[in-house]
Amino acid sequence: MARIVAVVSIHSDEVRGGAPIFIAPDEAKMEDIAFLLEKILDASAHDLKNGTIVLVDHANETY
Predict the structure, then answer these.
(1) pTM of the model
(2) Beta-carbon contacts of residue 61 (< 8 Å; ≥ 6 apart)
(3) DSSP letter at 12?
(4) 51 and 11 in contact (C-beta within 8 Å)?
(5) 1 pLDDT higher than 80
(6) Pairing verdict, β 44-47 and 52-57
(7) Which helix (H) or strand (E) holds 28?
(8) Rounded-to-integer distance, Cα 59 and Cα 27, Å
(9) CB 56 within 8 A of CB 6
(10) Which of 8, 32, 41, 59 satisfies CB 3.0 to 4.6 Å to 22 for a cystine?
(11) Residue 27: partners with Cβ closer than 8 Å, 6 or more residues away
(12) Which residues pair with 46 in a beta bridge?
């Protein structure tokens, strides 16, 4: 099963949870942070199109 390893958002009041959360001042910075984390964490970035990007580790998935 995939697991969420980080969340990057421009909405500090709308995100919560057990994964690390990074708050960005605008969408351009949000994308910059998410794509850097994508490389660092070897994860996949998924843009929810609502001002939030979720980074997911698919490495341990079994089919």
Answers:
(1) 0.90
(2) 1, 2
(3) T
(4) yes
(5) yes
(6) antiparallel
(7) helix 27-41
(8) 27
(9) no
(10) 8
(11) 10, 51
(12) 54
Q: Take residue 6 and report the two structure tokens written for it.
A: 């980080």
> Any residues with CB less than 8 A from the CB of 17 and at least 6 apart, and which?
4, 7
pLDDT tens for each residue of 46-55: 999 999 999 9
- Checking if the pLDDT of 60 tops 90, the result is no
Nearest to 46 by CA among 37, 61, 26: 37
Q: Which two tokens stand for residue 54?
A: 């979720």
**Cβ contacts of 36 within 8 Å, gap of 6 or more:** none
Q: Kindly state the tokens that stand for 5.
A: 């390893």
Confidence grade of residue 62 (pLDDT, cut at 50, 70, 90): low
